[in-house]
Design goal:
There is one protein chain. The protein has 135 residues and is of the alpha/beta class. The protein has one domain (2-134): 3-Layer(aba) Sandwich (Rossmann fold), CATH 3.40.50.300. It has four helices and seven strands, in the order βαβαββααβββ. It has helices spanning 10-21, 37-47, 83-88, 91-97, and strands spanning 2-6, 26-30, 62-67, 70-76, 100-104, 118-126, 129-134. A seven-stranded mixed β-sheet has the order 1-7-6-2-5-4-3, sandwiched between helices. It starts with a strand and ends with a strand.
Length: 135
């Protein structure tokens, strides 16, 4: 899937992603700072039923949300130094334990990303438009 979208259509994009790729338990998000990774993950999580306030886990590394019996984990690896730190911090184990895991900055510890993860790339077209590429 490759699609350009205005930011105000983000809820529609989130629903389309869930409908098309909802069987993938691990989603990794590739994008530069400020492209909207956290915003997209928040919108997807809300569409999946998260009622809590969703915030960036930049300092905590990981936020966990419950939807019924399902666990959604949102990770931000911007501050980690590599796979060893990710493993020590419990991030690798959390990937395996979550029903859904959304990861920002996956290039910081690529070796712990499962081979069957869904890769989503966000490109900034202009301040109000993004391009999303799903692989």
């Amino acid at each position: 899937m490759e699609k350009m979208y205005p930011i105000e259509q983000l809820p529609l994009i989130a629903k389309e992603l869930i409908d098309t790729y909802g069987s993938y338990p691990v989603w990794v998000f590739h994008a530069p700072m400020g492209a909207g990774k956290t915003t997209l993950i928040s919108t997807i999580s809300k569409a999946m039923g998260v009622k809590d306030t969703i915030s960036s886990p930049t300092f905590s590394l990981m936020n966990e949300y419950l939807v019924g019996t399902k666990t959604i984990v949102h990770m931000d690896w911007y501050r980690i130094e590599g796979e060893e730190e990710a493993t020590r911090s419990g991030l690798a184990a959390a990937i395996d334990e979550a029903d859904y895991c959304f990861i920002e900055w996956p290039e910081k510890a690529p070796g712990i990303i499962p081979e069957n993860a869904l890769h989503i790339t966000i490109e900034i077209i202009n301040p109000s438009t993004r391009k999303i590429i799903v692989q």
